[in-house]
Specification:
alpha+beta; globular; 4-stranded antiparallel sheet; 4 strands
Length: about 100
C-alpha cells in the first residue's frame, strides 16, 4: 500500500504484485496505490486463489491469476478495508 503518487504508479504496483509471488509461501498478492482520487488495486496469484473473484466483489475484474480494481472517492485505508473484507469472504466461501 502506497500513499506516494507517481505518474507510473499503476505499473509499479503491478510489478510489485508480480514480485511478491516470488516469496516462498505467498499464494496471492494485492498492491494498492493512489492515482489522483482513485485507489488502484493490482491482484496476482499462483492459481490457488482466485484474485478475480476477490476483486469483483469490490468492483474490479480480470482473470483467475491477474486482476485489478479501481475505487474512486475513498481514502487508501477504506479501500484496504474493503479489500480485506472481500478476501475474508472469499476464504470463508472456499474453506
Amino acid at each position: 500500500m502506497s500513499e506516494e503518487e507517481y505518474n507510473d504508479m499503476p505499473i509499479i504496483a503491478a510489478q510489485a504484485a508480480d514480485e511478491l509471488l516470488s516469496i516462498s509461501g505467498v499464494y496471492a498478492s494485492f498492491v494498492l496505490c493512489k492515482v489522483d482520487n482513485v485507489i488502484m488495486i493490482s491482484g496476482r496469484s499462483m492459481g490457488d486463489i482466485n484474485v478475480q473473484t476477490i476483486l469483483e466483489k469490490i468492483g474490479g475484474g480480470g482473470h483467475l491469476t491477474f486482476a485489478g480494481a479501481q475505487i474512486a472517492g475513498v481514502e487508501l485505508e477504506e479501500a484496504k478495508s474493503r479489500l480485506l473484507d472481500s478476501i475474508d469472504e472469499y476464504l470463508e466461501d472456499n474453506e
